[in-house]
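Sample entry (304 residues):
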Amino acid sequence: MHQDLTRERIAATHDLIAPHIRRTPVLDIGDAALKLELMQHAGSFKTRGAFANLLSRAIPAPGVVAASGGNHGAAVAYAAQKLGIPCRIFVPEISSPAKIARIRAFGAHLVVGGDRYADALAASEIYARESGALPVHAFDQLETLLGQGTLAKELEEQAGSFDTVLVAVGGGGLIGGIAAWYAGTTRVIAVEPEGAPTMTRALEARRPVDAPTGSIAADSLAPKRIGELVFPIAARYVERAVLVSDDAIRAAQASLWERARVVAEPGGATAYAALHSGAYRPSAGERIAVVVSGGNTVAVEFDR
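Predicted structure, serialized as tokens:
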């Protein structure tokens, strides 16, 4: 684990970004407490990491560049707009129209191309080398992890301790920050789509390895592999990974809407899908928190 990824550094990062982010609510729905991070500025938890990067790193004159499935791009674009920083975002063609529209609305220069996140990342790296812009990585960057860890600090302050926290995984920035905050004091469970098992494959191989990049949540949970900085944290503090089907994710989206009028995108509903489908079965009396990580989608899809 990176020596600087500590509770103290996460707390200091929270102090730094607090004026720029929302303290998102926690909703008790009986069998779990939902951390409603879909209500964050720009529609996802990614805004925490974006501000952590832009406020704590030296920004060159060409500004910043990021690759994203959509949410990280929207978050970096939002933070750059608020701070007056030039910004270019690369996204793949699978990014949802809702996310592309948000990025454009925040004033970033948007480049759409390639089939998957890895293609957008490669294009962004070429641009960074040629322009001198600062790359803001979606998950494999210390400042990103510190920013995402502030969610766990907030959750602890708002609702106390939990036995278990369920967290969806793509590149692992969110679960890495959360696991670093709890540092083994709370069970942290990774939840992934069956079509994008990045954490599952990494834990099996004992190192980051390439995984498939399918699933309806591919625009937020399907990089080729989890981050190099993330893996040591996951290996030490993530108890295990569970997989959920696309049908389970869709059912979780519908359940969140029906039970709480919460409109989560597929990636945002993935952690809850583990509980709703039985992929994760809690013990009697187990106190569970579920991170609803994003909501950049179209609401009418779930009103039935």
